[in-house]
Amino acid sequence: MKDGVRRFNEQAPEVKKQYYSRDFRREFVYTSNFDLYTSSAASWRDTFSCYMAPNPPKPQDLPAICRDVMLEYSKQAMSLGEFLFELISEALGLNPNHLKDIDCSKGLRMLCHYYPPCPEPDLTLGTTKHSDIAFLTVLLPDQIEGLQVLREGYWFDVPPVPGALIINLVTNDKFISSEHRVLANRATKARVSVGCFFTTGIRPNPRIYGPIRELVSENNPPKYREITVKELAAHRDAKGLDGSNLLHFKI
């Protein structure tokens, strides 16, 4: 999968530009900085993205150079995600199918990031500080360092572990969706990562989400108001990546 990301990004610009767009309703979008016109600064990366579920793209809508591996990898990611949702449900004291039954595993968006070497890495970031808005994120990093997580006011490196995936999720602060960032690439080789986000994003999904009622009590009151996934995604798109996305919806 990581090789597919490199192959696509290292094509000639005239080949890639046919996929470039800022219309994120398209089946496959290649762009640089989705929040270019709302963020205070641009990040040093390019990205291609695609919704792989619930309605996967037609094979002809994907670039041939990474088509097969995207389709196969997304199937494996869906299988892993459904298994993780079962484990998380059990960890929360719920029926194993609870999160699946409320469609947390319904949507899958794949974001493939390409961080070229940066000539002045101290002047920018690869990805600015943010928390994810997906129910669950399955991140495939490469072996070039750069990912950091914020904990108790300090940034800590997340060292790459060969063959490992990084998992991030959202609940009513039972499990915290950590704020994280990516430093600009100091290496001589491009850094890549593949994020599989379990969300329907800007796609239609009328279901209302909020703190799980079975977990709310007088001692654990709801901390966030009920919203749709599309409302959360629209808020993130309007303000850019900077900081936490859930604070806006805190009660």
From TrEMBL:
Keywords, sorted A to Z: Iron, Metal-binding, Oxidoreductase
PROSITE patterns hit by this protein: FE2OG_OXY
SUPFAM superfamilies referenced in this protein's UniProt entry, alphabetically: Clavaminate synthase-like
Ranges of residues in domain Fe2OG dioxygenase: 106-201
InterPro entries recorded: IPNS-like_FE2OG_OXY, IPNS-like_sf, Oxoglu/Fe-dep_dioxygenase_dom
GO molecular function, one term: dioxygenase activity
Pfam families referenced in this protein's UniProt entry, alphabetically: 2OG-FeII_Oxy (PF03171)
Family, similarity comment: Belongs to the iron/ascorbate-dependent oxidoreductase family.
Protein name according to UniProt: Fe2OG dioxygenase domain-containing protein
